[in-house]
Task: structure prediction
Amino acid sequence: MLKPWARFFRLRLSPTALSNVVAGAILGGAALSPDGAALSPDGAALSPDGAALSPEHWSILICWTLVLYIFGMGLNDFADQTIDATQAPHRPLPAGDISRAAARWALGVLAIIITVLTLMMPEHTRVFAISAIACVLLYDLGLKKIPILGPLAMGGVRFSIVMVAASYSGFSDPTLHDPILNASAWSHAFRIGLFTAAVTYFSEQEQGNSNRALLRGLVMVHLVALLMWIPITPFESFSATKLIGYLFLMSWISNGGAFVRGVEPQRCTIALVMAIPLLDLIPLLDLIAVSENRGQISGLLVILVAWFSLRPWTHFRMHPTEPLPLEETK
Result:
């Protein structure tokens, strides 16, 4: 009974959203030094008044993000029922595993929860929360059919999620904004949004079943990943840990080219989505290299757990030309 709902909400990839929240919160200043002083990316103490997010705040952040994620995935299927009836008849709605009425009620309840959680956030954080919600609605209800605008809307969702977490943590008091933390959060949110837009562009090429189109999308993803080496703010610098992180990221996203060996394009798209937590790891590795802060290390471990929960080692284990298992299909 629950399996169709897990497929409807595409729960398997939900850890990628959790990863964005943790990275955004730490870059926003949620991680603290052992003596309670907030740390900047260069390891310097910023404010003696810094404090870790309370369990209540973490609960609001994580619940809001996961509910928004499953709402967006469900709304996407709900809006695409007619298309899925011919192109993906195995999806829960066209297959009859979930009724249209049940899906409508579930989405309504989720919308109410999102609204309540958004209102519980600080006023300056709601700006980013509303931005994320707007991008989800715009993408699912029309922009996904428009080239360029669709991927940008999806990138806007991830950008806004990172900034919701950053603004809720380090910027919980607007009078305590720190330029270094501010720049770190904005630059990472920009990178996550841009990478997500590139992956969404790649996924759009699946429909044409053309290797040339898929290759064009893969080149876009690699180009965006390479551009992320370039510092965006004056506070960024190159380091050995950052280099290791980027090399691992580039190594992983090369799996997106497996379609040339006959691998299902959808499997390649999911592999690229799995790279999002790896991108979240890079700025945290840089922070830990200079500060060795226990809070940041804990955040890094959470992101690693999120990535391993995606079971990346099993993704290409099946015969490459076999269709994806039903719970993994887009």
Q: What stands out?
A: The first strand starts at residue 38 and ends at 39. Residues 179-204 form the longest helix (26 residues). The two ends are 20 Å apart (CA to CA).
